[in-house]
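Why does this matter for the project? Reviewers at the last site visit asked to see concrete outputs rather than summary tables. In response, this paragraph embeds two records directly. Each consists of the residue sequence and, immediately after it, the corresponding structure tokens. Nothing has been edited or filtered.
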Amino acid sequence: MIAVIGILGLLVLPAVIGIAHDRIIDRQIRRSQREEATKTKEKKETGRPSRPRRHHGAARPV
């Protein structure tokens, strides 16, 4: 009986770890979406971008 419970535990453990991992990732995605929405809202209120624009690859005048 102990062997059966042990095997069941080994079969269920990866699923439980996967569920916990998915929940952590979902939490990170929601936090990122909230931060992005906040930045967008601030940008609309101020009328300016939240960070300065950079011109990559543009030649500087001499």
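We now turn to the second protein, recorded in exactly the same manner.
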Amino acid sequence: MKTILYAMIAAFLYTGCGSRYISVDAKQFAETIKDPRMQIIDARTPNEFKDGHIPGAVNMDINSKDFMRQSESLDKTRPVAVYCRSGRRSKVAAEKLSSKGFDVIEMDGGIISWEGEIIR
């Protein structure tokens, strides 16, 4: 499964379409974040993050004026997995991060589609 997902990611990233991110469903996202190299970003507000988040996620509110400054703490040599509540904000975050050179996987459907563990 991982091999197939990585092949899909590689094919997408190198097709020359200009975008360096892909959207995957919650099940694929769960498989993807098992990779210890993955940096997991929750793009929701701090209060939403406190209400429950995916284990290992770091909160970087896409609506914060500090979002891009916060993203400087990420390692560009490692992929980024990003999610939000429903998928709208994470797509904005993925676009911003990919424009800065990050390889990004975005969870379409957001945390409301997540069936895995939640830390509260």
